[in-house]
Records
---
Amino acid sequence: MPRPPAPAAHVVVLGGGLAGTLAAAALAPHAGGVTVVERDRLPDAPEPRRGLPQARHAHLFWSGGARAVEALLPGTHELWERHGARHIPIPQGMISYSPAGWFRRWHDERSHHYAIAARRDLTDWVVRTRLTQAFGHVEFRTDRTPVALLGDSRRVRGLEVRDAGGRPETLEAALVVDATGRAAVGGRLLAVLGAPPVPVTRVDAGVAYASRLYRAPEGARAGWPVVNIQADPTTGEPAGLATVVPTETGDWLVSLSGTRGRHPTGDVAAFEEFARALRHPLAADLVRRATPVGAVALTRSTPNIRRHYDRAATPAGFLAVGDAATACNPVYAHGMSSAARSALALRRVADELGVTDERFARRAQKAVAREAAAAWTLATGQDLFFPGVEAPAPPGFAARAAGRYVTALMNAAIGDHHVVQRFTDVMTLEKPATRLATPRMVLAALRGPRLPKLDGPALTPDEQAVLDSVRRTDPHPK
Ligand SMILES: Cc1cc2nc3c(=O)[nH]c(=O)nc-3n(C[C@H](O)[C@H](O)[C@H](O)COP(=O)(O)OP(=O)(O)OC[C@H]3O[C@@H](n4cnc5c(N)ncnc54)[C@H](O)[C@@H]3O)c2cc1C
C-alpha cells in the first residue's frame, strides 16, 4: 500500500517527455503536488513537437516496458489501441533477419511477448493523457526552462525556472527529478551548487539514422508485421540495418541506420539504395512501391551515454531518470521500456520510504540504475564490436566471450523455439539476461539450430501477395 503523502511534499520533474511523465505517475501517489517543467509546448493531440525530434523515427515499445506503463497508469493500452496503436505479438508479428538467418515466426498460445507500434507522438500523448486523468494534482508548466537548483551541495530544495517572457518563478520541492533526455541538464545545474562531477561512460558506434514515412499499399494497411533487417557486428565492417514499423494509421515508418563509415543520408533517391544494399533487400522492396509521405528525417543522437548518478555524491532531493541518466543506442529499441521500468522501480522505493525521506533519492537512483543496466549491457555488448567505436576500452576477454556466446545462441535461435522464447524474454525486457545462461541454453548454443535455415522471410500468403504486387509494379519505368 502506498504511504499517505506528506502534506508539504512537492515534487518537481524537469522534462515532460516519456520518462518525466512516467516519473510523475510513479511519484504522484506520494506527493502533495507534482509540477512537470517542460521547455517545449505539449500539444493536446498526438501531434509532432519540437522537443521530441526522435518522433520522426520508428519506435517500438517492448512488452517489458509497456506492461510497466500499464502498472503505473492502468488503461494506457486500451487508449493506445483505441487510437490505432498496433499490438504486435512477438515473434509472430515480426519478420527478422538476424546475422544467423531468418527467424521463424513461431505461433505459441502461451507466448505473451508483444510490442506496441505507433508513432511516438501518439505513444507519448496517450501516456500524458492517462497521467492527467489519473492525478488531478499533477501540473504541466510548459515553455519554461530551468535556471538553477535551490539548496546546496548536500540537499536540493527546489528549482528556479524562467518562462518564455523571461519571468522567474521559484518552485520549492522535496525532490527534483531530471528527465530532460539526452539534453541532461542536471549535471550543469548540480555543478553550480558545488556538487562533485558525475562520472560518465560513453560508448559510441557512430550510428546515424534516416527515416521516412510511407503510405503502405492497400493490402498492408489493416495489419503488417514489423520488418527488421539486423546488422552483423561480427564482420569487422561498418554495418547497416533497417526497420519497418506499421503505425496507427496503417502507414509504414521506415528507419535505416548505419554505424560509423556507413551512414544513410537525407537524400531521397539514396534512401532506397541504402536499403537495397543491406544484407537483404526486403525493406527496399517494400518502400519501392509505397508512396513516401514527407521528407527524410536524420539524427545522430545515438551514442550510449551512462551518467553514474548512482555512484556520485549527488545531493539528497535530486535524481535523474530516462535518457538523462542512461541513454542507449536506439537500434535496440530499449529507451522507452527502460524508462518505464525505471519509473516502476521509483514507485517501489517511494512506496517503501516516501519521497521526503533523506535516503529516498539515493536509494531510488540505485534502483533506476539497476533497471537501466539491462538495456545498457545489451546495447554496449554489441556496439563495442563495430569498427571505429569510441569507448573507454576495447572489449576485454569477458565481453568477447559473451559476444561469441550470444552469436552461438542467435545461430541456435533460427531453429529452436525454446531459445527464441528466452531471447524474446530478454529483448522485450520482460526478464533479466541471466535467462540466457541456463544449462539448457548453454546446451542449445553448443548444439546449434534444431531445424534447417529458412531460405527467405517467413511471409504469410497475404503478405507474400503484397510483396509480389510490389515487385511486379515498377514505379520508376525507364
Ligand atoms: C532515432 C531514435 C529511435 C529510437 N527508437 C526507439 C525505439 O524503437 N524504442 C524505444 O524504446 N526507444 C527508442 N528510442 C529512444 C527513446 O526515444 C528515448 O529513450 C526516450 O525518448 C527517452 O525518454 P526521455 O523522457 O528520457 O527523453 P525525451 O523523450 O527526449 O524527453 C525529454 C524531454 O525533456 C525536455 N527538455 C529538454 N531540455 C529541457 C530543459 N532544459 N528544460 C525543460 N525541458 C527540457 C524535452 O523537450 C523533452 O520533452 C529512439 C531514439 C532515437 C533517437
---
Amino acid sequence: MPSDKLAKVRGILQRFTTPLLPDDYSALINPLWSTRELRGKIERVRREGDVVHLDITPGWGVPTSFHAGQYIGIGVLVDGRYTWRSYSLTNAPGHVAGTLSITVRAVEKGKLSNHLVGNVQPGTTIRLLAPSGDFHLTDPVPAKLAFVTAGTGITPVISMLRTMAERRQFEGSDVVLVHSSRTREDVLFADELARLQKEHPQFKVHTRITSEEGRVTPENIDQIVPDITDRVVYACGPAEMLDEMEAWAKDAGVELKTERFTLDRISDAQGGTITFPGRASIEVDGATTILEAGEKAGVNLPFGCRMGVCHTCVRPLVEGHAHNLVTGETHEAGSRVRTCVCVANGDLIVEA
Ligand code: FES
C-alpha cells in the first residue's frame, strides 16, 4: 500500500482507538456537525476591491430564520486563534434556503476583515452565533420610510430592500434611501440599487459622494428628503452620524431606529475600582470595560469579538454592580458578565 494511503488508514485507526468526545466522532463524518458550538462553512467567496461577499452554509442546529436587518456573529481561525466579529446579514430571509450572506470591507487594523477580504477560501469551516439584533423591518413596513446609511451601513439595509422587493412590499409604500460613500467607486451594491429603483417607482435612491459634496447632516438632509420628518427613519453608519441623527430625531419627534457597529460607551455608570482577586486592582472610569481594565492592570482575561457577541469573555462578578453598555442592564453580584461590554458602576470584584 502506498505510504500516504497507509498514513491515512493509520490516522483513522488511531482516531477510533483513542477516547473521543461526541464532537470528535461527528466531525469525522461532517465538520459542520457539533454538539458544542454552532458551525458553518464558507460556501462562496466573491471579492470586489477591498470588499468580499461571503455565502455561508449553516451547520447543524444553526437557526436560519432571521429578520431582514439582523446580524450574525462569526468566529474564524486567524493565526491559530478564533477571531470574532458580527456582520449584518445581506440576503433576504429564506431567499436561498438556509444560506447566510455577509459583505465585509477591509478596515485598517481589522484583523478579521483583512483576513476575510485577503485570504479566506471557499470550504473554510467557521463558528457562528445565531442571528440577532433589533434593527429590522417591522411587519407591515411603515408606509413612509427613509433609510440613511453610510459606507458599510448599507449592509443591513440591502437585506431589507431585497426583502421588500421579494415580498412586493414596495407597492403601497414610499421609500427613500440616502446613501453616503466617500468615492463613487466605493458605493456598495450600486448596480443593484439602480435596478431596484428602476423596477420600483415607489423607491428613490440618493447617493451622496462625501469627498465631493460633504457629509449628510441633520441640517442638510431635508434638502435631499423634504418630508423626512413624516417618515420612519432607519439609520446605519459611523457613530458620529448616528449621534447627530439621534439628537435631531429627538428634537424633531421623528421615529428613528439606529444600528451601531461600535460600542456606545455613553452611560450613567460611574466607574470605580475593579479588583481581580489575587491579581491586581485598578481604578477606571465608567467608559472602560472590565476587559480593558484587566488589560491595563496586566490581567489578561479571555476574549473573542470584544463586542458582546461571542461570550468568550464571560467571568463571574463576585461583588458590585456592572453596567452592560449593549443591553443597558445592571448585573448584580453572583451573575456572570461579558467583560468586553460591561463597565463598573461602583467598585467591583471580578474573578479573573
Ligand atoms: S469577547 Fe465576545 S462577548 Fe466578550
